[in-house]
Amino acid sequence: MSPAIALAFLPLVVTLLVRYRHYFRLLVRTVLLRSLRDCLSGLRIEERAFSYVLTHALPGDPGHILTTLDHWSSHCEYLSHMGPVKGQILMRLVEEKAPACVLELGTYCGYSTLLIARVLPPGSRLLTVERDPRTAAVAEKLIRLAGFDERTVELIVGSSEEVIPRLRAQHQLSRADLVLLAHRPRYYLRDLQLLEAHALLPAGATVLADHVLFPGAPRFLQYAKSCGRYRCRLHHTGLLDFPAIKDGIAQLTYAGPG
């Protein structure tokens, strides 16, 4: 390419960099820098985060562990976890609904699991599902470090598509009063329909779905709004540490099979 042609494209490149600078920063932090650190350390980001928690957080104190993860994500490496703003929304809704049983799809490092567990009513139960065994191992250690035993929080390793059909028989889950979808947005619709098909959602159940605006779950939202079985509300937020990138948590209330 000649210098003259390159120069002609320069204003366009500058415009794109300025307009999408938040997305470029996110790309650098979540892909480029993370991949480099993974290679150099031989550890995944959630494993590095847990090492930090072990040396800086108070065992048995879920609130302090959550704060420690937030600090590490803001000052060390971007963890891509739920964060305190969405976390307050989640905890408020769990306290309001007072569910007897909660199902979480997408444990990741265990951050949102701790948010739910710390405000569960006495005697309630949380089942959390994580596809990746290595990530699940970190989450398991974090959950137990926070002081929650298996009677309160049970972690299931496997894909949501395989786990949901056997929840009733293998994990004694007959109904989920509250469901958090926090795995991959492209699977939200599939898994919601699986929960319906296996009659795991009682009338009045609450389904919360994270990241419905970024990266987005348009088919899931369209289905929830058009099928006639849900009342829908969207809690608008920004992406953690990138408030200019708009995101949100969808709150669905199930009216029953109709």
From TrEMBL:
Protein's UniProt keywords contain rRNA-binding: no
Known catalytic reactions: a catechol + S-adenosyl-L-methionine = a guaiacol + S-adenosyl-L-homocysteine + H(+)
This protein's record includes keyword S-adenosyl-L-methionine: yes
Xref: InterPro entries: SAM-dependent_MTases_sf, SAM_O-MeTrfase
SUPFAM superfamilies in the record: S-adenosyl-L-methionine-dependent methyltransferases
Subcellular location: Endoplasmic reticulum
GO molecular function: catechol O-methyltransferase activity
Gene Ontology, cellular component aspect: apical part of cell; endoplasmic reticulum
Keywords, comma-separated and alphabetical: Catecholamine metabolism, Endoplasmic reticulum, Hearing, Membrane, Methyltransferase, Neurotransmitter degradation, S-adenosyl-L-methionine, Transferase, Transmembrane
Domain of life: Eukaryota
PROSITE patterns: SAM_OMT_I
Entry EC number(s): 2.1.1.6
Signal peptide location: none
One GO BP: auditory receptor cell development
Chief location: endoplasmic reticulum
PANTHER family linked: CATECHOL O-METHYLTRANSFERASE 1-RELATED (PTHR43836), TRANSMEMBRANE O-METHYLTRANSFERASE (PTHR43836:SF1)
Homology family: Belongs to the class I-like SAM-binding methyltransferase superfamily. Cation-dependent O-methyltransferase family.
Summary of the function given for this chain in its UniProt record: Catalyzes the O-methylation, and thereby the inactivation, of catecholamine neurotransmitters and catechol hormones. Required for auditory function. Component of the cochlear hair cell's mechanotransduction (MET) machinery. Involved in the assembly of the asymmetric tip-link MET complex. Required for transportation of TMC1 and TMC2 proteins into the mechanically sensitive stereocilia of the hair cells. The function in MET is independent of the enzymatic activity.
Name listed for the protein in its UniProt record: catechol O-methyltransferase
Organism in which the protein naturally occurs: Octodon degus (Degu)
Organism ancestry: Eukaryota, Metazoa, Chordata, Craniata, Vertebrata
